[in-house]
Amino acid sequence: MVALGTAVFILVVALLGVGLVRSGASAEGNQRSPSPWWLLGGGVALPSIVITVVLVATVVTMRALPDQAGTAPGLTIEVTGSQWQWDVVYPDHGVRSVNEVHVPAGEAVLLRLRSTDVIHSFWVPALAGKMDALPDHDNTLIVEADEPGTYGGACAEFCGLGHTGMRITVVAHDRAGFERWLENGARRG
Ligand SMILES: [Cu+2]
To answer: Global pTM?
Structure first.
C-alpha cells in the first residue's frame, strides 16, 4: 500500500507540474477544457485498478495467516474481564492471579478471553493487538513475549466508571522463573 500510495502521489505531483507549466505557457492563449478521458482514467479506471490490487493482496495475505484457533500453543490461560478487574486462571496448574498474566518468555501462549458483565478489551500493545472480552462468547488471542520482562496494558473498551483503572500487566519469566512462579502461586492457592 505504501508503494502504491507513493506511485500515485508521484503521478499526481508530476501531472500537477505539467499542468502548471502548461497553464503558464498558455496564459495568453485560449483556455481549453480538459478531456473527459482524464476524468474516466483518473477518477474511475485508476482507482478501480488500485482497489483491485489492494483487495487481491489483502485476500492473499488473509489466507496465508495461520488460523489462530488451529495452532496449539503449549499453555492456555483463561482471562476474564469484569467491572473492573482481570481475573486470570491457569487451568492446568490450579493457579490464579488478578490483573497480572504470568507467561514463559519465548513461548506462544493462548489466552482465552471472556467477560462476566459488559464488553471489555484486552490490550497489551507490546505483545498483540486488542481483543474483545465478551460476556457470551470466548475469544482467543495468542501472545508471545520474546524477552523476559514486564509488559503493561489496559482495558481498551470503555466499560464504566472504573475503566481507566482496569490495567493489566503481562510478566514474562524465563522458563525456570515461570515454573517457580507457578509453584509459589499454587501454594498461595
Ligand atoms: Cu473493561
So the answer is: 0.62
